[in-house]
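Thanks for the sequence, V.! I ran Dehalogenase right away. Repeating your input here for the record:
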Amino acid sequence: MGTFLVFLSGILFLAGIMLIKPRTKQDRNWKTVLNWVLYILWFAITGMGISFIYINSSVGHVKATSTAIFLFLGLSVVLAVVLARLLGFIGERRKNTGVEV
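Predicted structure:
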């Protein structure tokens, strides 16, 4: 059941990106809203994941702890990369200034 939920959330995330992407290219406000929503989502998933891992590790649930590390922190890394790409921190093309060193 857990694998299905991860698969379903991935499909919904990609569908949301495909739905919003044309609007973000046209209007700057949509891109700002999308960045803030992704940031809040990333922060919430990271916070939930860290607290879930801490709670389960303090009571000794090894399987739940390892699942939480895989699920929550994996999703957090994926959202962080998407957010960094949208904000332009990674994947930027360098402009050629014509000056060679």
